[in-house]
Amino acid sequence: MNANVDLTNVVLETDRLIIREWKEIDLEDFYEYAKVDGVGQMAGWKPHTSIQESKTILEMFIKEKHTFALEQKDNHKVIGSLGLEEISFSLNEEYDNFVGREIGYVLSKDYWGRGLMPEAVNRVIKFCFENEKYDYLMCSHSVVNNQSKRVIEKSGFRFVKENMRVTRNGDENIFLYYVLDNPTKMK
């Protein structure tokens, strides 16, 4: 079951990041990384072709209130996003009476390989379990996305199943699904 999400006024911090709700002033930073070939495809969407496309999606992020902006502390540039998405399918009957969300994320290609995404994911996991009292979180990646696989493994998720899925850009890919139980709630 999907947990309720409203990230209004939520601000989380790590050593290098401010994890916060999106703002209209983030448009240039968002478009800068979303237009780069290879970034969106890792998350199942095509590179943005115009700043207007990024603006439309940014407005959706602001309205829906379930996607964080990842802002660097040292220069206040937004370099990625991390969403608490609706769960894409039921894991199994065991989870039907529990609440959770599916984590999805993307990071500017300029910042890959620096450990920023595991840092962000682990901080959001802590928020979801300690503050929001979620029972579990899910995460998935396409079989070709080894960077996401490493983030998921570093964050303690366990593999659950493989499933065919059609991405936002219309491609059909095999996705690997993982779950992380809230250790204080799931027994």
UniProtKB/TrEMBL annotation:
Matches recorded under Pfam families: Acetyltransf_3
PROSITE patterns: GNAT (PS51186)
Naturally occurring in which organism (per UniProt): Velocimicrobium porci
UniProt-recorded Gene Ontology molecular function terms: protein-N-terminal-alanine acetyltransferase activity
Protein name per Swiss-Prot or TrEMBL: GNAT family N-acetyltransferase
Keyword hit for Acyltransferase: yes
Membership in a protein family: Belongs to the acetyltransferase family. RimJ subfamily.
Entry-linked InterPro entries: Acyl_CoA_acyltransferase, GNAT_dom, N-acetyltransferase
Keyword annotations from UniProtKB, A to Z: Acyltransferase, Transferase
Domain N-acetyltransferase, first and last residues per copy: 17-183
Domain of life where this protein originates: Bacteria
Record's GO cellular component terms: cytoplasm
Lineage: Bacteria, Bacillati, Bacillota, Clostridia, Lachnospirales
Tagged with keyword Acyltransferase: yes
